[in-house]
Amino acid sequence: MATLTDAQRIVVKIGSALLVDRTSGALRADWLRALAADVAWLKSMGKDVILVSSGSIALGRRVLGLAAQELPLEQSQAAAAVGQIRLAGAYEEALAPHEITTAQVLVTLEDSADRRRYLNSRATLETLIGLGVVPIVNENDTIATDEIRYGDNDRLAAQVAVTVGADALILLSDVDGFYTANPALDPTARRYDIIDQITPEIEAMAGDGVSGLSKGGMITKLLAAKMATAAGCAMAITEGSPDNPLKLLENGAASTWFAAQDDPQVARKRWIAAMKTRGVVSVDEGAARALGSGKSLLPAGIRHIEGDFGRGDPLAILGPDGRKLGQGLSRYTAEEASAIKGCQSIEIEAILGYAGRAAVIHRDDMALSP
Ligand SMILES: Nc1ncnc2c1ncn2[C@@H]1O[C@H](COP(=O)(O)OP(=O)(O)O)[C@@H](O)[C@H]1O
Ligand SMILES: N[C@@H](CCC(=O)OP(=O)(O)O)C(=O)O
């Protein structure tokens, strides 16, 4: 079974019901302080931690004095705008005593559907993580309308986990795992310790949530599990409400783990290899050798560029003899790539007029042919 200490990059999703007291609507500050201690413990082991936290609507509705039932879209957007400041502030305050810097990252469904925006958000998250920051991610509820929103943070958290190549996704919930039926309604329901495959039988066991503050229930958690595990990220559901839920999970607290189907890197490369290419980049002998030994493609090794492609589009990579070496995602447009081909990376800024990335195709975005 997967464990937290085995994972190097961990995404933790915190549901509204954990962060906000159900009756008073107030922030559960003591619980959050204990969670911050868990995050500090993981960071002290050299792990990368990304938090995906719900709670902006629940916090904001209390401040605005809005009713406890389902709000019309405009009101929930207003509540999110008010609550998100408090939400991010609360994490900053809780993690500061551990000398952990936080960053607020608000995303919408479109940020992952549009490849360019996806790559940009990936680069930002990667930079933050590299600087030791703990990103606090939520959906940008204030601007996301129904057609363009996830609406639940389970799938959003899975998307973040896939985007950053995490190897563990932990959903802290109000239930300690996945049961044969909704345990709130069926006292005979039994919990699974581990689920290797999400079969139609498993899917049929997932029901809605009943907490009133949350969205999605088990249905969105299973969708999240499918996304994460297919991309090589193991996922756990565990009860989040006791203090220090991550330490408890590591010490064997009840949970359900969904097994990763693949290594995250392998899954990502398979995804890239299956894309329809939008252009061609032909490279010289030296670059072909460099790619073969796992390096990124630098402008210096590029001979020709073909096609009309944008940043993030997939390109076929051809060797000097015209043989296809593989394919990868371009970090430049066709126009930019043509302008910098054959040049040293250090010259990019002078040629384009702005500082770009050193590689035209980064090795993480490249799948070489077998
Ligand atoms: N098969 C199942 N196993 C466990 N919980 C289930 C199942 N089907 C439905 N549920 C419900 O899903 C709830 C968890 O989802 P949700 O209320 O959305 O919480 P969260 O705030 O963590 O997103 C549980 O409390 C339970 O009522
Ligand atoms: N983005 C919304 C939360 C949506 C959501 O998924 O809520 P939950 O089921 O509590 O994780 C918010 O911050 O209020």
Can you describe what's shown?
Belongs to the glutamate 5-kinase family. With 370 residues, this protein is of the alpha/beta class. The chain has 2 domains: 256 residues, 3-Layer(aba) Sandwich (Carbamate kinase), CATH 3.40.1160; 94 residues, Archaeosine Trna-guanine Transglycosylase, Chain: A, domain 4. The protein contains 14 helices and 13 strands. The strands form 2 sheets. An 8-stranded mixed sheet has the order 3-4-2-1-5-7-8-6, with helices on both faces. Strands 10-9-11-12-13 form a 5-stranded mixed sheet, sandwiched between helices. A hairpin with a 5-residue loop joins strand 11 and strand 12. Helix 2 crosses helix 4 and helix 3 crosses helix 4. The two termini are 31 Å apart. The mean pLDDT is 91. The site of adenosine-5'-diphosphate has 23 residues, from helix 1 and helix 9.
Write the layout of secondary structure elements.
Layout: E1 9-14, H1 16-19, H2 29-44, E2 48-53, H3 56-64, H4 73-95, E3 102-107, H5 110-113, H6 115-130, E4 134-139, H7 153-163, E5 168-173, E6 194-195, H8 200-205, H9 217-230, E7 234-239, H10 245-250, E8 255-258, H11 264-273, E9 279-283, H12 285-292, E10 302-306, E11 314-318, E12 324-329, H13 334-340, H14 348-352, E13 366-368
Helix pairs in contact: 2-4, 3-4, 7-9
This protein binds adenosine-5'-diphosphate and the ligand N[C@@H](CCC(=O)OP(=O)(O)O)C(=O)O.
